[in-house]
Amino acid sequence: MLKASQRNGAGPRQPGDNDDICPVCKSSRYLNPNMRFLVNPECYHKMCESCVDRIFSTGPAPCPVAGCARTLRKQRFRKQTFEDLKIEREVDVRRRVAQVFNKQESDFETLRAYNNHLEEMEVITFNLLEGIDVPATERKLAAYASQNAASISQNDAKAKRDRNTQNATTAAQKEQALLNRSAANRSDISSLAEREESHRESLDALSKAQVSTPQDDPAAQKVVLKKSTARRTAAEKARDKQRSQQQPADSRSSDAETFRIEGLKTVVEAPVEKPYDPFGGISFTPSYYTLQAHYEHPWLEKARTEASIVAGGYDLREYYQRTMVEAFAGLGCFIEEEMGNKEQGDGNKMVATEGAAMAAGGNGGEDIL
Question: pTM of the full predicted structure?
Fold first, then answer.
């Protein structure tokens, strides 16, 4: 193993390697195997947990590494995920940019617009990683975040819902697979018990001097066939149920005033759904009169108090409505226009009749049939 590691260019790790020494207190992991190193996203300088507690427990303090004057806070220190700190920093920068530029391909009108959006993200990420025009890049990132705060929060909520749905689907599939395995195990155990029972029955039959065996006895073969068919049917039903459950149930410049993304689809709000109208918008409100709740008339007073009238549930408001409808029923009808339309229709009928007669005369008066 030693020769192989040396051949690959990675020599054996020796006590005192730089990766195992705290740059602040110079403690070595060789002497303290339980030593943990922490990093801060502000500068990504690595130091041991003891130095973090000793320096930053009282509050913010400058980074103790020589040449770094950034102010660090204890709560931002975390365990290092990747061995290479450059990769650690790149992952953090990409995660930060992706949280702001969180639009999907379905939000753009064309694929080229989406690719331009991805290229803009890569340019911003590259500038932050390589330290190229960092102040202008930070302003551009902050401008986009402030201008699109609502859409960023909506896309973030949508992504969380999608992740929750995916996790729930995965959990349901795992649970269903576990149930299928349990059902298969129970089926195997039941099949084994049935075979053992059949074997015992065969031995009992042979012990009683019965020459016939289950293979020779048609009745016994029928029972075995029925049991095996029932097992296969149950297994097929379980597989069909699993397949049905797995089916789905259910897609610039650096100034704040001019920074925007090109090619986005126009967001059209869904129209407010109107309440259901069974009459299709037909209004039954009278336009010529207003129905009153009470009318004065001697006969109406009698109808209100006469027991023989109100005993059957008669309601005077129905009488009011029918009477007013009958009184105003002819106001929208114009006799002259209706008669003129009728005369015009009669004239068209006469022209058609004369045309038919002329056509019949053209045939010499013979019956065309």
Answer: 0.44
